[in-house]
Amino acid sequence: MAKYKISIVPENCTGCLRCHLACAELYTGRFSLHEARLEVILSGDTCTIRLGDDCTACGVCVDNCLYDALLKAPLEAAP
To answer: How far apart are the C-alpha atoms of 47 and 26, rounded to whole Å?
Structure first.
């Protein structure tokens, strides 16, 4: 179950891949770009960030983003 609502602000992304590597390290124990639960696509001067289907919205990617390209907010509790 998701912990946070993750928002993506692609214009703030610099392509540093800190989010990508932090995610992979948390879930696999390795800094592997192929095993993260999100994808950062670099194309010229633009970056696209996609959360994978297996993303748990744990927020580790947001915690490691220095540029506010990823933001998290607590999920609203159901009444």
So the answer is: 23
Predicted confidence (pLDDT) per residue in 45-56, tens digit: 899 999 999 999
Q: What is 4-74's CATH number, 3.30.70.100, 3.30.70.20, 3.40.50.720, 2.130.10.10?
A: 3.30.70.20
Distance between start and end Cα atoms, the chain = 17
Contact 12, 66 (CB under 8 A): no
- Rounded to two decimals, the pTM is 0.88
**Six-digit token string for 31:** 């800094």
